[in-house]
Design goal:
Elements (H helix, E strand, L loop, with lengths): L9 H4 L9 H13 L3 H4 L13 H15 L6 H7 L4 H6 L2 H9 L7 H30 L6 H18 L9 H17 L12 H7 L7 E6 L5 H18 L12 E5 L4 H13 L3 H6 L4 H13 L5 E4 L6 H13 L6 E5 L13 H19 L3 E6 L20 H7 L2 E6 L1 H6 L8 H14 L2 E9 L5 E8 L4 E4 L12
Parallel strand pairs: 1-5, 1-6, 2-3, 2-4, 4-5
Antiparallel strand pairs: 6-7, 7-8, 8-9
Helix pairs in contact: 2-4, 2-7, 2-8, 5-7, 8-9, 9-16, 12-13, 13-15, 16-17, 17-18
Length: 494
C-alpha cells in the first residue's frame, strides 16, 4: 500500500523547536472519515475541532467534512474537492489528488477513535507549551501594573480553560449500566449502619429527610443574617470529617469523608475557632476575648490536638472565580486523600469567569459551574446563599423559594434548596414593654417554646419530599444538633 508523504510545515523547516504532532495520524483520520462518514459519530466523544490539527490544511479539511456530514450529505474525496477547489493550502498539497490519496490510503476505520484521541492529546500538549511560554514571557516583562499574584490568577484561569477543553463527553450510558449503579447505591444504604444512600450530615432528622448528602447533588443552604447558615454548614463539615477520622472498620468511613471548605467570607482561623468552640464546648465569645479559665484552656488545647488529623481542608481565598474554585476542587480530589464533600460559603461571593450584563446571569454561571463540579467530581456540593430582605417585611418570617436572591437560576440548578430559620431570633426582638403584663406573659411562653430550637425548611428536593426538620441550636457554641423529642427524652435518640 502506498504511503502518503508527510509535508513539512513551517515549524518543521525552520530552526525553531518542533512541537508535538503526528501528521500521519491526521492523514489516517481524515482518510477514515472520507471513506466511511459514520466515523464522525465514533469520534464524537473526543470533541475534536479544527484547531487541534497541527497542519492547518488538515484542520480545514476536517471542518469542511464535518459540516457536510452534519448536513446529511455524502462526503468523500469527490464531493469535497468541489467545496475546497479554491483552497490555496490544499492546492499546494495536490488538490483533489491529495484528497483521493487520503481516502484510498486509510488503513482502518476501526482505529479512528484512537487517531482522534492522539491528535487531541498532542494539541493539548502544544497548548501547554504555548501557555508555559506566555506565563514565562509575562513574568519576564516586569510590568509594575501587573503584580505576580495577578499573573498567577491569569495563569490558573488559562490552565483551567485548557483543562476544560480536554473534558470528554460521556455520551449515552446503557440502561443496564445505570441499573447496576442504582442497585449498588441501594445495597450500600442497606448495609450501612445509618441506612443512608448518601453521606451523613450527623443530624439524624435531616439525614432522614434527605437520605444523606448524595454524590453529584448541588444543595443550596440559604438564610437571612444571624440565622446560622455558616454555623450549620460548619457543623456538617465537622461531623463529616470527624466521622471519617473515626472510621476504622471496613465500610465505616462511608459515614464520613474528606471535606473541602471554601470560606470566602471568614478566615480559616475564624472557621477553625468555631469548630473548636463546638468540640471543646467553650462559648465562642470567651475564646475571642481570651477569658478562659485554666481548665477551659486545657480543654481547648486538648480539642485542638484531637482534631489535628481531621480531614477538613479550608480555602479562605476571597472573591475566588468559579474557574479557580473548580480547579482547586479538582486538585484536592486528585490528591491521595481524595474528596467527599465540598462546601462554599457563600455563593454570592464567588466571582464569574467574566463580567456579565446582569447579576442574574453572573449567578447563573456560578450555579451552573457548581452543579458541573458536583457531577464531574461525583461529590455533593453545599453552597450557602443569601436571602432577599423581603423576608423581613412579612409577618411570617419563614423563608420560601421566592426569597432567594437571583432565585431563578439558583432554584433551577439546585437539587435541594434548604432554609435555616430560628423563630427565637425574631421573637426575641418582639419583647413587649414591662407594663403590659399579659403580652409579657405570652411572650415569655413563646420564648420558652422556641428557646434552643431551629428549623431547616426544605423548599425543594428533586428526588425526595419537602418539609421542615427541627434541630436544636446552642448559640454559645454556634452548634446545631439533634433535637430530642418529648417522647425520646427518657430513651435514646433514634
Amino acid at each position: 500500500m502506498n504511503t502518503i508523504a508527510i509535508k513539512a510545515t513551517p515549524a518543521e523547516s525552520g530552526d525553531e523547536q518542533v512541537l508535538p504532532h503526528n501528521i500521519e495520524a491526521e492523514q489516517q483520520l481524515l482518510g477514515a472519515i472520507l471513506s466511511a462518514n459514520h466515523v464522525m459519530d465514533r469520534i464524537d466523544e473526543v470533541q475534536l475541532k479544527k484547531k487541534h490539527f497541527y497542519d492547518p490544511v488538515h484542520g480545514d479539511i476536517y471542518e469542511k467534512a464535518a459540516a457536510h456530514i452534519a448536513d446529511g450529505r455524502q462526503t468523500d474525496a469527490t464531493t469535497l474537492k468541489t467545496a475546497m477547489a479554491d483552497h490555496p493550502g490544499l492546492s499546494a498539497l495536490g488538490g483533489a489528488e491529495y484528497l483521493l490519496r487520503l481516502q484510498l490510503n486509510a488503513v482502518a476505520t476501526t482505529a479512528a477513535r484512537d487517531y482522534a484521541r492522539l491528535i487531541h492529546d498532542l494539541a493539548v500538549r502544544r497548548e501547554l507549551i504555548d501557555l508555559g511560554r506566555r506565563v514565562s514571557d509575562r513574568a519576564q516583562a516586569l510590568r509594575e501594573d501587573i503584580p505576580p499574584d495577578d499573573q498567577i490568577v491569569t495563569a490558573e484561569a488559562e490552565l483551567f480553560q485548557l483543562a476544560e477543553q480536554g473534558t470528554a463527553q460521556r455520551g449515552f450510558t446503557p440502561f443496564l449500566t445505570a441499573l447496576r449503579e442504582a442497585v449498588e447505591v441501594a445495597d450500600a444504604a442497606v448495609n450501612r449502619s445509618g441506612k443512608l444512600a448518601g453521606l451523613s450530615t450527623g443530624l439524624v432528622d435531616l439525614d432522614k429527610m434527605l437520605g444523606g448528602l448524595h454524590n453529584s447533588d448541588l444543595l443550596i443552604l440559604a438564610g437571612r443574617p444571624s440565622m446560622g447558615k455558616t454555623s450549620l454548614a460548619t457543623n456538617i463539615a465537622f461531623n463529616v470529617a470527624k466521622s471519617y477520622k473515626r472510621g476504622s472498620e471496613p465500610g465505616t468511613a462511608a459515614d464520613g469523608g474528606v471535606v473541602g471548605f471554601f470560606s470566602l467570607e471568614m478566615s480559616a482561623a475564624q472557621l477553625a475557632q468555631r469548630i473548636l468552640s463546638e468540640a471543646a464546648e467553650i462559648p465562642s465569645e470567651l475564646i475571642r476575648k481570651g477569658e478562659l479559665t485554666a481548665t477551659e484552656f486545657k480543654r481547648y488545647i486538648n480539642a485542638a490536638q484531637a482534631l489535628e488529623t481531621c480531614p477538613l481542608y479550608i480555602d479562605d481565598t476571597p472573591a475566588l472565580p468559579i474557574s479557580q474554585l473548580a480547579a482547586r476542587a479538582r486538585r484536592l480530589k486528585r490528591a491521595p486523600q481524595g474528596l467527599q464533600l465540598i462546601i462554599i460559603d457563600y455563593l454570592q461571593l464567588v466571582k464569574p469567569v467574566s463580567a456579565k450584563d446582569s447579576r442574574v446571569n453572573e449567578v447563573s454561571e456560578i450555579t451552573q459551574g457548581l452543579k458541573a463540579i458536583a457531577k464531574e467530581l461525583n461529590v455533593p456540593v453545599i453552597a450557602l446563599s443569601q436571602l432577599s430582605r423581603q423576608v423581613e417585611s412579612r409577618e411570617d418570617k419563614r423563608p420560601q423559594l421566592s426569597d432567594l436572591r437571583e432565585s431563578g437560576s439558583i432554584e433551577q440548578d439546585a437539587d435541594v434548596v434548604m432554609f435555616v430559620y430560628r423563630g427565637e431570633y425574631y421573637k426575641e426582638r418582639e419583647k413587649p414593654g414591662e407594663d403590659n403584663l399579659e403580652a409579657m406573659a405570652k411572650w415569655q411562653q413563646d420564648m420558652e417554646t422556641l428557646h434552643g430550637k431551629a428549623e431547616v425548611i426544605i423548599g425543594k428536593q428533586r428526588h425526595g419530599p419537602v418539609g421542615n426538620v427541627e434541630l436544636s441550636f446552642d448559640g454559645r457554641f454556634t452548634r446545631f444538633g439533634n433535637l430530642v423529642k418529648p417522647w425520646q427524652a427518657a430513651g435514646e435518640l433514634t
